[in-house]
Amino acid sequence: MKTINKEPAVLPGNRMKVNTGILLEYRTHRLRKRRFILGLMAAVCLLGTWSITLGPLKLSIAEVYSTLLSRFFPDYFAPHSELAQRTIWYMRLPRLLTGLAAGFNLAVAGAVMQPLLRNPLASPFTLGISAGAGFGASLAILFGKGMGGGYLVVVNAFVFSLLSSMIILGLTQYKAVSPQSMVLAGIALAYLFQAGTTMMQYFAESWAVAEVVFWLVGSLSKATWSSLSVILPVTVCCVPYLLMKSKELNVMTTGDEVSKSLGVNVKKTRILLLVITSLLTATIICFTGTIGFVGLVAPHIARMILGGDNRYVILSAGLIGALLLSGADIAATHIIPPVVIPIGVMTSFMGVPLFIYLIMKNRTEFWQ
User: DSSP assignment, residue 122?
Assistant: First the structure.
């Protein structure tokens, strides 16, 4: 006798119910992600407003908004005082916007680099960008060598930060290297630039060495509207393009061979995204100095909450980075008043325990 295996038939009506249930669950999950991003935006606005009220000149939130709006609608709003207007517009607001832009750009760069290089430790500094900027700034401060005139330090830091990325990208043109090899080459370049910086400090005058150390630890104290006129346009131009490429970035996390089979030009996309993320990072570093851990920690927080879909991770990581850096700046300026702790030191103090917590909470490959 023949044994006939009969599978239960799925009626068309049941199949439709199953498909509708999956679609409803997907839409609910997507709505939660969008609500989370909107919540982050609201948190950034609230924290930014609160940070402007803090300082030797105490201001209420109503006075802050009244002073800000009086700049654009003088017939309807009046500034709290002339002192408040100058304090907000020329000191606190540029510092706040620079901190938010720095945290946002560094975190977005890290959120792109980690899946792009398929390495959970990838960050804006993995390719030696930070060390290159430090070497260029040290060269300008200690010996006055470089280009840029009055902006010698800024231009030097920008050029050398991009130089490190160009060297790595040059290796990919010379020989097809894996993402892991690119990370290792970046680490080697970082040590090389750090050795050069240390050598210059060894032979320099003590006052110049102190200035280099101050630059290397990072600071928002030199934030101005002129620096924001460079940072904000770069952010507006680069970040939307990275968001447009998020779908291709999702595909590239599966591996180069799979990505190629799905029609993604892996080599071209990797080079282009690395150039853009390097530009974002270099633009921030040359004005603020080196600020660590934001570009490493923020993307991990976003992925642990939202999963691995880069369409949502990139933007949410940027907002988390802005929150982290803004919060670190508030802590740095108010823990030991009137002493202002360097922002790079504060982000390290905050980032190390937070990163260890993330590792212990999820011991699998939490970056995916």
Answer: -
Residues 6+ apart with CB under 8 A from 291: 102, 106, 218, 284, 285, 325, 343, 344, 347
From CA 286, how far away is CA 136, in angstroms rounded? 9
Dmax (CA) of the chain: 99
The pair of structure tokens assigned to 113 is: 């680099």
Neighbour count for residue 261 (Cβ, 10 Å): 11
Q: Going by C-beta distance under 8 Å and a sequence separation of 6 or more, which residues neighbour residue 128?
A: 164, 165, 168, 186, 187, 188, 189, 190, 192, 193
C-alpha separations of 81 from 87, 125, 148 in Å = 10, 43, 38
| Token output for 233 | 């346009």
Measuring CA to CA, how many Å separate 364 from each of 119, 304, 358, 368?
A: 13, 11, 11, 9
Which amino acid, one-letter code, is at 16? M
Give the pTM.
0.87
- As a whole-number percent, the residues of the chain with pLDDT over 90 amount to 22
Nearest to 223, CA basis, from 331, 102, 334: 102
Q: Burial, 322: exposed, middle or buried (Cβ in 10 Å; 0-12, 13-18, 19+)? A: buried
Six-digit token string for 137: 């700034």
**Integer Cα distance of 307 and 86 in angstroms:** 44
Q: Measure the CA–CA gap between 274 and 292, rounded to whole angstroms.
A: 18
Joined together, the tokens standing for residue 144 give 């006055």
User: What is the sign of the dihedral through the CA atoms of 158, 221, 125 and 105?
Assistant: negative
pLDDT mean over 79-92: 84
